[in-house]
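Encode chain A's predicted structure.
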Amino acid sequence: MNKTFRIAPSILSANFSKLGQEINDVISSGADIVHFDVMDNHYVPNLTIGPLVCEAIRPITDAIIDVHLMVKPVDRIIPDFAKAGANIITFHPEGSDHIDRSLSLVRDSGCKSGLVFNPATPLEYLDHVMDKIDMVLLMSVNPGFGGQKFIPETLNKLRMARKKIDDYTEKTGREIWLEVDGGVNADNIAEIAKAGADTFVAGSAIFKAANDDDPNRYDTILKSLRSSLSKA
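Encoded structure for chain A:
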C-alpha cells in the first residue's frame, strides 16, 4: 500500500518579519501543512503566537493550518483558533481536565481534533476517545523550544501508536493521521516513516537551512525530505 506522506513546516522557525512570504514560499516548494505552535509560558517554558497571527495568515494560504496548543487550560482558547481559521487543533492531555469534552469542543467548533503526547506521556489516553480523534501527534523532543534533537525512543512509541490506529481503522474504516514533531530532518525521516508516522513536522531543518532571498530556496530542502521518504 502506498502511503500518503505529509510535510508540515513549523512556522516557529520561520522569519517572522516576512511570515506571509515564508509560508507562501514553503508551500509552493511542496510542503503540505502549516504547523502552528502555540506556547503559553505556563504549560511550557516559552511564549509564542496566538489567534491573531493565525487570523492574519489564513487569507494568504489554502494549506491546512495545524494548530498545536501547548497551553493549559486549553478550552478557553480553542474557539478563538477555530474562528481564526485553524483546520486542525491538537492539545496535550495534561492541558485538559476533561479530554473528551475538549476534543468535542474542537469538533463542535468546526475543526479536526487531536491529542499530543510528550516523550513520557502514555498512549493510554487514547483508549476511550479514538472516536473523537483525527490526528495523534507524538513529540520526539520535550516541548517548548525549536532546534532540539530527536529522541530515539520515539520510534518505539510510534510503532505502538501505529498499531492502535491501524486496529481502530480496521474496525471502523476511519483514518487517523499520525504526526511526529521534533528533530525531524532528511537523515532520520525515512526511519521515522518506517516506524509508522505519515505526517512530519520540521522547523529548523526547513527554515534555518535557507537564509537567502531566493523564492525557490526551499525547493532543495523539500526535495531532499521527499527523496528520503521515498526510501521508507
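The mean pLDDT is 94.
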